[in-house]
């Protein structure tokens, strides 16, 4: 006898297209934290990379974030780098390794990962997918089949995301 009703419904996925040298993405962190606090594991928040050409360290930062994910500290690392956007502007890739060291991660491995480019394919794939669905700036949120652009203004976006998440969770019986 098989039980077809899932004990734990699939979480709703919120993709946050972001780049780590973007002050608007730093501002968006408050919304991300609030959403995480409200929904817990019912909402899977995924950072998707969309480095912009105007920010010359954003591509390296995206690769470093993937190394942090691999070392089990993705979000703490992302938040720490975003907190230092101006320093990343000024100091470049050195700050990416410093942040890793401060979080107790293997900083030498970060250094090597930035040199050997082991995470470039993930970053490229995210960026290509973002372009394919119409992402032009950061932050951009995608939940359900809706794309919400936070690059111009984030006013009201969290409320809109919550409306969509509540509807999707209700539809899924979560």
Report on the structure:
This protein has 174 residues and is an alpha+beta fold. The protein contains 8 helices and 4 strands; from the N terminus they run βαβααααααββα. Strands 2-1-3-4 form a 4-stranded mixed beta sheet, with helices on both faces.
Draw up the topology in text.
Blueprint: E1 12-18, H1 23-39, E2 43-49, H2 58-70, H3 74-82, H4 85-91, H5 93-102, H6 107-116, H7 120-132, E3 140-143, E4 146-149, H8 157-172
Parallel strand pairs: 1-2
Antiparallel strand pairs: 1-3, 3-4
Helix pairs in contact: 2-3, 2-5, 2-6, 5-6
Concise synopsis of the structure shown:
The protein is 55% helix and 13% strand. The protein is of the alpha+beta class and 174 residues long.
Widest beta sheet: strand line-up: 2-1-3-4
The dominant shape is: globular
Strand content: 5-15%
Write the element-wise H/E pattern from the N-terminal end onward. Answer: EHEHHHHHHEEH
Secondary structure tally, helices: 8
Task: Write down how many β-strands occur, each being a DSSP E stretch of 2 or more residues.
Answer: 4
